[in-house]
Structures are given as structure tokens and as C-alpha cells.
Amino acid sequence: METNIRMDIQTFVAQSIGRWRSQRSGHNLAFQHFEEVRSVVDIAARAADDADVIELCKNNGVDPALATSPFFMKWDAESDWDEDEKTTGSCLLVPVPDLKNTSRGQLLRSQGYAEKMPAVGEYRFTEEGMFVLVTPYEQAAAEERIWFATQNLRLRVSNILTSSGTGVLTTSFASEVRSLSQ
User: pLDDT (tens digit, 9 = 90+) per residue, 125-175?
Assistant: First the structure.
């Protein structure tokens, strides 16, 4: 794998646009439960002047002119935990890069990952091009790491932490393959 990849939020979002088929393995440490989830995830660009983007920025006290590469994500998932139930959802995400250091910034979410409420996380890119997002919530915190192994293969590790950030409640690993035919 190539190292020292220059990654920024615009490149990351542009590479993420499309339909992804995801296979996720999750471990709920509190309940000592293992779960496999298969999902279809659609990621689409949104215009910076989209009314929903402007509203999400204003609701978080952010100047909409600072929004960069907003995108919309929706998913359909099936879990082996409850094979009769399908989970669907969607979320508007608005990156707001740091003006002094574009390898980091805030990510505004219309719906959070760990709790189903609007959320604001802090993101950064590592020297290897990995996207790292930490989002505090009322009852927990989420840490996500996403990187591209190839143009059409993303890998994602997610941890749900205690609100203090000292303990791991759940952890998961996902491989996401871009669907080349839609």
C-alpha cells in the first residue's frame, strides 16, 4: 500500500461518491455478542448552496460559506442478529475544514452514528491518508477510521466508546466494495 498519500476532505469525499456494498463484523463487548451486517450504502454529493446544507450549518453556528464537499449518505442493512428486520437510514454530512490546517476540521451530521441525533465530530487525516473521525455524544463517543485500499475498496474500523472515552463498548470492521454496475 502506498504511504504518505496527500489526502484532504475534497479528495476523500470525491473518492467516496457511489454505491458501496459493505460487509461488517461487529462485536458488542457489553453483551458479548458478535454480529454480521451486510449493507448497501449510497453516497452522493450535495451542493454547498443546498437548503438542507445551509440549515445544518446554521443550526450548528457555522457559516455556510465554510462548508466543503457536503454529501448525503443512505443505507439499507441486514443483520444476522435479527434476520427478519432490515435497517435503513440516511444522513446529511457537511465537512468544515480548519482554515489553518486543511488536513483537519469538523464534520456536521444531521444524524449521528452512535446516537440518532444531530452531531458534530472532529476529523483529521493521517500521513497515510486515513480519515479519522471522533464524535462525542451525550451517552457515548464514536471513533471511525476509513481508508482506501484501492479506488474501489474502502476499509472502516468503528469503535463506540464510553462517554469518557476510556472504555470500548462496541467495535466493528467493514470492507466496502464499490458497485461498478448500478
Answer: 999 999 999 998 888 889 999 999 999 999 999 999 887 767 888 999 999
> How far is the C-alpha of 66 from the C-alpha of 107, rounded, in Å?
12
Using CA atoms, how far residue 151 sits from 75, 95, 124, 133, 154, in Å, is 20, 21, 20, 21, 8
Q: Which of 174, 177, 181 is nearest to 25 (CA)?
A: 174
**What are the residue ranges of helices labelled H in the chain?**
9-16, 51-59
The domain 9-178 belongs to what CATH superfamily? Calycin beta-barrel core domain (2.40.128.20)
Task: In whole angstroms, give the CA distance from residue 24 to residue 165.
Answer: 23
The answer to whether 120 touches 108, Cβ cutoff 8 Å, is yes
